[in-house]
């Protein structure tokens, strides 16, 4: 059998829509929580063997159509000499505060470009059935810069927004370094067995459209172009940024992945002739149980054409999600015959 996810990316007809879930190898899974009792998150993510084991957990429990390698958007940053920890989100040891800090970043050390992630991709591919796709990923340059400048996740990232306007040249230099490094990282993930890659722009939305166009677009566009030229299928995800949706739709990629705030049926109506779409059930609905999840999933399938639709949530699945909600979502998707 072929990989439904790849058919959907190419907007080819499928017998049913493919489904995967952002953060599918996370704390809602009892077997993940059990592993976390023995190992810190960073230890799980920095061992290729453990990361492979975690990547496969949701695939062993559920008939999902893609595995996503267990890692973090911070994983490749040791290549730029950046040190960080997790509590539970990333905490950067020495946040970037000036142009001099950006200049001091060393030339990328490609030996430290997350070799554990590359190994985990190879090991996962060898263990997966042929009809399950394997996804690689990275953080978008802006979302990575958000942690590097702010030092940690902070509501609306005020230090980052200030930096963008007080040190525009430094931000530009930082984003250029990050885009170049992420292009190499995604191409290496593809070579190691990733069928497609997702670029997570989780904090895209904190800038105005005007600032985004001037400061962010050129870097994201360069990253996407390089990866596309290498023949790697690209899923572009943006979170909490409905005011940027049309700007993102004009970027080079195969799949537009949106959060639950976006009307995905309208997005498909505007761009479905050139882009597949991915999403976008509100992850909070799954906290409301199986009936609420079933209703939301049925509504989604009803509104969105199956051609070029990858079913997913609008952001990561939440830690307290009942397993019955995940089963309900899968049942609805599998019950549809096209
Ligand atoms: O989707 C998957 O199953 C693959 C694994 C994955 C993780 N992080 C593991 C993780 C992926 C794709 C990510 C991406 C990531 N990491 C993003 C982009 C996606 C998004 O959520 O918007 C961002 C912004 C980060 C940074 C990050 N890492 C945060 C904000 C947190 C804490 C939030 C949380 O869920 O607790 C992390 C830690 C992290 N990364 C966890 C996992 C499973 C939780 C670690 C744990 O305590 O077990």
Describe the structure.
By secondary structure, this protein is of the alpha/beta class. The chain has one domain (4-335): TIM Barrel (Alpha-Beta Barrel). It is built from 15 helices and 9 strands. It has helices at 4-9, 30-38, 41-46, 48-61, 99-103, 115-127, 141-150, 158-166, 168-191, 209-229, 245-249, 264-271, 283-287, 290-303, 323-335; strands at 66-68, 84-86, 90-92, 133-139, 196-201, 234-238, 255-258, 276-281, 309-313. The strands form 2 sheets. It has a 7-stranded parallel beta sheet. A two-stranded antiparallel ribbon has the order 2-3. α4 runs parallel beside α6 (115-127) and α7 (141-150) crosses α9. It is globular, with a radius of gyration of 19 Å. Coproporphyrinogen III binds next to loops.
